[in-house]
Amino acid sequence: MGSGKSLTISGLPRLVYVADVPVEHSTSGSGLLYRLLQDYPADKVLIVEGWPAMSQPVRRLPGVAYRQFALWPKRGRTRLRGVAATWLALSAASNAGRLERLVCDFSPEAVLTVAERYTWLAGAQFAEDAGLPLHLIIHDHWLSLLDAYSGIKPWLDRRFGRVYRRAASRLCVSPFMEEEYRRKYGAAGEVLYPSRP
What we know:
Helix content: 25-40%
Number of domains: 1
Number of strands: 7
Shape: globular
CATH topology: Rossmann fold
Largest sheet: 7 strands, parallel
Radius of gyration: 16 Å
Strand order of the largest sheet: 3-2-1-4-5-6-7
CATH class: Alpha Beta
C-alpha cells in the first residue's frame, strides 16, 4: 500500500485498521474504506473501530473480524464538549498499550488509520511503538473538525505533522489536499479519490 510495488495476495501484510470511521458498505468515508479493503484477504485484516462509531453488522466486510475500542466510558454525551474533546485529543495516544493488548493475538504487520476524531492517535502511537508501517488516510482537515480548545491546536497540528511525515503512506482525497499537506508538512502523499459506493 503506497509503496508503488505490486504485491501478491500472499505478500500482503497482516493489516489492522484502527480508526473512528466505520468500515461498512454505506456512504462517504465508510464506503471508501469498504471498497479499499473488500478484496483484502479476510484472514489478513482486523478492523478495530472506535466507539461509538461502530459499523452495522449486516454492512461489514464478509469474514473479517471486527473489534471495538473505546477511548472513554460508554456513558453517552457530555455537556462539557470542549473539555472532553481537549482531554481526548491530549490523551488518545496514551491508549496505545491498551490497543496493543486488544490486537496482539492477530500479530499485525501494518496499521491503517483515518485521521478523524481521536482513535487514530492511539493507532499511530501503537504503530510507532511496535515499529510497524503506518498507512494514513486523510479525507478532511482533522484539526478544523475538533471541538478542542483553540490554545492546544498549534501543538496538535505539530503532532499531526510528525505523524504525517513518519507514515509509510499518506493517502489524501484530493490533489489540492496532497499539495497543501506536502507544502505544510514537508512530505509527499498520494491521491485516493473518494467515489460513490
